[in-house]
Amino acid sequence: MSSLKDVVASFKRKKADLRLIDFVNFKFQCQNDVLAIQNVRDEKLARFLQITQQLKQTYATEGTYSEALFELSNEQLKALNRIADGEEAWITDVLQSCARQLLKVGQELDRRAKEESITANKKKKVKGDLEEETFLEKCVRTIHTSFKLCLNDRNPDFQRNKKWGVYYFINIEFKIYQQLGNRDMVRNLVKVIASRVSELPAPEKALRSHRSQLITYLYYLGEHYGCHEGDYRRGFEYLQRAWLGCPANASQMSRQTDKIVALLVPFALLASHWYPDMSALAQYHPRVALLYAPLIKSVLNGDLREFDKWLAANEMFLMRRNLYVATVLIRQLVLLKLIKTTRAGFKDPAASVVPLASFVAAIRYSAKHSHVTHITDDDHDETECLLADLIARGYVRGYLSHANRVIVLSKSNPFPKLVSSPQSQL
């Protein structure tokens, strides 16, 4: 059990040692030395010590997470923020411990409130025209202050600048905004990071000793750019860095790596037309392989019906993971493969002028797996639209002649590859 004198000594030495980290945790008791607090001349520090002792006493008395415990945890972080304003990088570890403790209490209280609301079948309480704040909404304001203290530190000694701790609070805010479903705040946070990137240490350096934090940071950015901004190339780049940073053969990381790879597969397809080695995927990520095996098969075979069946069967999962839009776009790759396969089967596969009727029949058969006996003008028009979209996206080089109902393909390279890579490519 640490003493208040030890804690005060840690602040004087400007060192976030184990005694100080344990002190901020309300589950670890500390000798309640009122005289020691009274002898502290720094009013901010004295206030922080006093609140933390009250926090410990409240938990010891109640033995559970309560609103009183949340309010004291919130006040604890506020008090530490006031101290941190004049301190250097060492304080960020203590700030992080307080912030995560506050978040944990807020999450638990919100979970209980949600369960009680469902059980009682009550509507959310309303104050005037505004819904009552959740505990997460309350705590994120205090945590955001910690983030700003780190981000805006002007200490000229870069090695002692609190900017080294900014990524901890970015991760916490990402997590809170995701749980609240507040995409606007995530977007604003990403914009702030992008605008200040030249002032911040590289995440790989700042989080060198905290691999899980680095992986979390890269995952959130990859998920944001791919799932919500439609920038699949940038999303893939962040997620690839996150995946490469995961420890090999770590069973405790299997769930986290599965989440990363579940995003990597569709982003790689859309960004670069890369698809995974399914045998390797099944060996290291069997759950992800089970999910995507029918998708990859439909892409490789140009099978529209199988793709549509897979999409319908997994619609709810894809929507929950914000992957539905991305996977819908993969249908264009299935169509592209079908067009390439159909052309390769012509008597003259190098012919540049191709009647649309050939592609109309192929698309209708692939979509229904039934023989095509009659082709209408509407079928031609629909096929023209599909081919025009492939041309617009750069998947096909050529142009359409509506009057002649033909597509004129480029003689040199009608189906260009997006990239040159040793990885598997369509």
From TrEMBL:
Any single GO molecular-function term of the entry would be: double-stranded DNA binding
The record, for Pfam families, names: PCI
- Domain PCI as annotated: residue spans: 216-414
- Cited SMART domains: PAM (SM00753)
Q: Which family does it belong to?
A: Belongs to the CSN12 family.
What is the name listed in the Swiss-Prot or TrEMBL entry for this protein?
A: LAMI_0H03752g1_1
* Organism, scientific name: Lachancea mirantina
